[in-house]
Amino acid sequence: xxxxxxxxxxxxxxxxxxxxxxxxxxxxxxxxxxxxxxxxxxxxxxxxxxxxxxxxxxxxxxxxxxxxxxxxxxxxxxxxxxxxxxxxxxxxxxxxxxxxxxxxxxxxxxxxxxxxxxxxxxxxxxxxxxxxxxxxxxxxxxxxxxxxxxxxxxxxxxxxxxxxxxxxxxxxxxxxxxxx
Length: 180
What we know:
By secondary structure, the chain is mainly β. The protein has strands at residues 8-11, 15-17, 20-23, 27-30, 33-39, 48-51, 55-57, 60-65, 69-71, 75-77, 82-86, 92-95, 100-101, 103-108, 115-119, 123-126, 130-134, 140-143, 150-153, 157-158, 167-170, 176-178. Helix content is 0%, strand content 49%.
């Protein structure tokens, strides 16, 4: 709910958004720790995040998005959050050039369709870990071929998938730096 008539929203509990969450002005903040922001659902092919302005402060939350995740304006404070991009219902794109995300987990839990997650243009910075997981029988491909971004990862790059599907990373022509 808005606070004192402003366009500031405090997420103090888990929140499920079925559809698109757009931040074009104002402030969205997760308060406290260990909250979940779920955008979309594995059983439907909708759910995306679009930030063109405003401020999002993630703090120590787990953000799961089942659609495109786009940050093209405003302020994005990842803090110690984890972003789970789940391509189970559809192929998706991450657009965050010029912004710093923390831990990221790319997921495909599908038992019927291989999926891909495309990386947008610019410099993509991850202040934590960069993981790919195919957790069922179908494959997951994270691809930077179309946009060839520069990618900087402070943590680890790993494929900890536990399913029968395989994980692939297509790096494109951009420079990748992994510190972890």
